[in-house]
Amino acid sequence: MVYDQMYVGFSAATGSTNHPSHYVLGWSFMVNGEAESLDYRRLPQLPPSKSKRKPKHIVVWLLPVAICTFALMVAATVILVVRRRIKYAEVLEDWEQEYGPHWFSYKDLHRATDGFKEKELLGVGGFGRVYRGVWPASNIEVAVKRVSHESGQGMKEFVAEIVSIGKLRHRNVVQLLGYCRRKGELLLVYDYMPNGSLDRYLYDHTKPSLDWARRFMIIKGVASALLYLHEEWEQVVVHRNIKASNVLVDGELNGKLGDFGLARLCQHGTNL
């Protein structure tokens, strides 16, 4: 029943949310007769929903955070790369520019020797250890000498070998292929001698004995190398450490003189 004068209200529940979701945009009623129809075109607009604004607010503060995070990641990556390059970078010294053979990266030598594992160890000397290596691309075998940097003579031997045999070319001299020098690491790369050193054939009874003809060929090769070092090269190379363990034997049992760590250079005609 509707009286001539009375109050009319509206009530609705919003549930668990704190935002109103019910609105009265207009009403129409009459005490007597039919209520006037509402003109929907003249009704006010619904207020903007706060729930729709929420994602925009999230984007507003998430975007700067994402940009800052990405910038920090890029900066950290750049710093790590620069630090790594500085750590492994080496500046060529004067003697390297004059005598230096091919320069190898430490990464390539580490990969070729399978991380310098014991299974690739060929021998141990007074100045370091020698490992067998294989270039992945060509399957060529090399010998990598890891000069001991703990020894005070390590750097001297390293420089002596490069300076003395960096330019030598003779069939009875072990060929120095290249080197690597970085912080804390000194590495020399040679031709690989599959039969090891001569002392194994002379003193290791598990190795087959060499007949006199083969022994004569080996010592003749060493003598040819000494003639080249003393008389035929542009300077005199004094080896100063000739012994059976420093004579390497190739696949055809030819002798090659190696280990020039104690070698010295002098001009022809100089009194030693």
Automatic annotation (TrEMBL):
<feature type="domain" description="Protein kinase">
    <location>
        <begin position="116"/>
        <end position="272"/>
    </location>
</feature>
<dbReference type="GO" id="GO:0030246">
    <property type="term" value="F:carbohydrate binding"/>
</dbReference>
<keyword id="KW-0812">Transmembrane</keyword>
<feature type="transmembrane region" description="Helical">
    <location>
        <begin position="58"/>
        <end position="82"/>
    </location>
</feature>
<keyword id="KW-0808">Transferase</keyword>
<dbReference type="InterPro" id="IPR000719">
    <property type="entry name" value="Prot_kinase_dom"/>
</dbReference>
<keyword id="KW-0723">Serine/threonine-protein kinase</keyword>
<dbReference type="InterPro" id="IPR011009">
    <property type="entry name" value="Kinase-like_dom_sf"/>
</dbReference>
<keyword id="KW-0325">Glycoprotein</keyword>
<dbReference type="GO" id="GO:0006952">
    <property type="term" value="P:defense response"/>
</dbReference>
<dbReference type="InterPro" id="IPR013320">
    <property type="entry name" value="ConA-like_dom_sf"/>
</dbReference>
<keyword id="KW-0472">Membrane</keyword>
<dbReference type="GO" id="GO:0051707">
    <property type="term" value="P:response to other organism"/>
</dbReference>
<keyword id="KW-0732">Signal</keyword>
<dbReference type="InterPro" id="IPR050528">
    <property type="entry name" value="L-type_Lectin-RKs"/>
</dbReference>
<keyword id="KW-0418">Kinase</keyword>
<dbReference type="InterPro" id="IPR001245">
    <property type="entry name" value="Ser-Thr/Tyr_kinase_cat_dom"/>
</dbReference>
<comment type="similarity">
    <text>In the C-terminal section; belongs to the protein kinase superfamily. Ser/Thr protein kinase family.</text>
</comment>
<keyword id="KW-0067">ATP-binding</keyword>
<protein>
    <recommendedName>
        <fullName>non-specific serine/threonine protein kinase</fullName>
        <ecNumber>2.7.11.1</ecNumber>
    </recommendedName>
</protein>
<keyword id="KW-0675">Receptor</keyword>
<comment type="similarity">
    <text>In the N-terminal section; belongs to the leguminous lectin family.</text>
</comment>
<keyword id="KW-0547">Nucleotide-binding</keyword>
<keyword id="KW-1133">Transmembrane helix</keyword>
<dbReference type="InterPro" id="IPR001220">
    <property type="entry name" value="Legume_lectin_dom"/>
</dbReference>
<feature type="binding site">
    <location>
        <position position="145"/>
    </location>
    <ligand>
        <name>ATP</name>
    </ligand>
</feature>
<dbReference type="GO" id="GO:0005524">
    <property type="term" value="F:ATP binding"/>
</dbReference>
<keyword id="KW-0430">Lectin</keyword>
<dbReference type="GO" id="GO:0004674">
    <property type="term" value="F:protein serine/threonine kinase activity"/>
</dbReference>
<dbReference type="Pfam" id="PF07714">
    <property type="entry name" value="PK_Tyr_Ser-Thr"/>
</dbReference>
<dbReference type="InterPro" id="IPR017441">
    <property type="entry name" value="Protein_kinase_ATP_BS"/>
</dbReference>
<dbReference type="GO" id="GO:0016020">
    <property type="term" value="C:membrane"/>
</dbReference>
<dbReference type="Pfam" id="PF00139">
    <property type="entry name" value="Lectin_legB"/>
</dbReference>
